[in-house]
């Protein structure tokens, strides 16, 4: 803010009266206030809200879009909202550190497609549903939880709570809790860990490829 005010200082004493200088100060402060608001707009609630807006719009156009159309619309929204690389690391578990860079890339790519494909299949229609955003609360050592509800037309609302963490690219979703408590990431990690134990990383890669084909075919 001081740099902005200094930028006006050379002209102010000579050409601006006191009232005009006050106006310039107010405008400068307002500009920085707007910047603060824009920064806040990138917070956890805004990330979730923006993603859910895209998801709801995709649901409304689900039929004409088809699976591939829903996938293409959701992919950039999910890549902007979710930390899919970190989520892939978490679901693979301790074996991640032993894998090569090529295996890391392959698993992240497969997990990204699997995640987007799952949303494209599950949210394949619209029947008057709406998303509502509730409170957000800090979880020390974990991140921030943003509470939301999927309000259904003929059934009770479904709680969908998002866990977000601060990353170099801003706040990103790293887990979703169904009914407020059931961790999607933990469920996937249990499933994938079982495959890795029995069939190794190659078995997990083969599983993700098969699931992606099945989801696209649905």
Q: Provide the low-confidence segments as ranges.
A: 1-40
Q: Strand percentage, roughly?
A: 15-25%
Q: Would you list the SSEs in sequence order as H and E? A: HHHHHHHEEEEEH
In terms of quaternary structure, the protein is: single chain
Radius of gyration equals 23 Å
| The number of domains | 2
CATH architecture of the largest domain: Roll
Percent helix, as a range, is 55-70%
What's the rounded overall pLDDT mean? Answer: 84
The main β sheet shows up as: 5 strands, antiparallel
Secondary structure category: alpha+beta
User: Taking strands numbered 1, 2, ... along the chain, how are they ordered across the largest sheet?
Assistant: 1-2-3-4-5
CATH superfamily of the largest domain: Tgt2/MlaC
How would the global form be characterised? globular
> How many beta-strand segments?
5
Number of helices: 8
Determine the CATH topology of the largest domain.
Answer: Nuclear Transport Factor 2, Chain: A
Distance between the termini: 55 Å
CATH class category name of the largest domain: Alpha Beta
Summarize the structure.
It is built from eight helices and five strands; from the N terminus they run H-H-H-H-H-H-H-E-E-E-E-E-H. A hairpin with a 3-residue loop joins strand 1 (130-139) and strand 2. The relative contact order is 0.12.
Description:
This protein is α+β, with helices and mostly antiparallel strands. It folds into two domains: 2-40; 44-217, Roll (Nuclear Transport Factor 2, Chain: A). It contains eight helices and five strands. The protein has helices spanning 2-9, 12-15, 18-40, 44-60, 62-81, 84-92, 101-122, 184-217; strands spanning 130-139, 143-151, 158-167, 170-178, 182-183. A five-stranded antiparallel beta sheet has the order 1-2-3-4-5. A hairpin with a 6-residue loop joins strand 2 (143-151) and strand 3 (158-167). Helix 5 (62-81) crosses helix 7 and helix 6 (84-92) crosses helix 7 (101-122). Residues 1-40 have low confidence and may be disordered.
């Amino acid at each position: 803010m001081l740099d902005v005010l200094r930028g006006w200082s050379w002209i102010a004493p000579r050409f601006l009266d006191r009232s005009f200088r006050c106006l310039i100060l107010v405008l400068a402060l307002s500009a920085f206030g707007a910047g603060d608001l824009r920064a806040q707009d990138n917070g956890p609630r805004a990330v979730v809200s923006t993603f859910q807006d895209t998801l709801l719009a995709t649901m409304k156009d689900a039929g004409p879009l088809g699976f591939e159309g829903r996938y293409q619309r959701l992919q950039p929204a999910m890549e902007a909202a979710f930390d899919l690389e970190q989520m892939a690391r978490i679901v693979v578990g301790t074996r991640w550190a032993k894998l090569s860079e090529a295996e890391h890339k392959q698993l992240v790519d497969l997990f990204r497609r699997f995640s987007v494909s799952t949303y494209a299949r599950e949210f394949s229609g619209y029947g008057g549903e709406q998303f509502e955003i509730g409170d957000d609360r800090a979880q020390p050592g974990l991140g921030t939880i943003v509470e939301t509800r999927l309000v259904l037309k003929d059934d009770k609302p479904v709680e969908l709570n998002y866990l977000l963490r601060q990353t170099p690219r801003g706040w990103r979703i790293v887990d979703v809790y169904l009914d407020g408590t059931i961790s999607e990431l933990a469920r996937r990690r249990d499933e994938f860990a079982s495959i890795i134990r029995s069939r190794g990383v190659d078995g997990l890669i083969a599983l993700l490829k098969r699931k992606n084909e099945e989801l696209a075919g649905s």
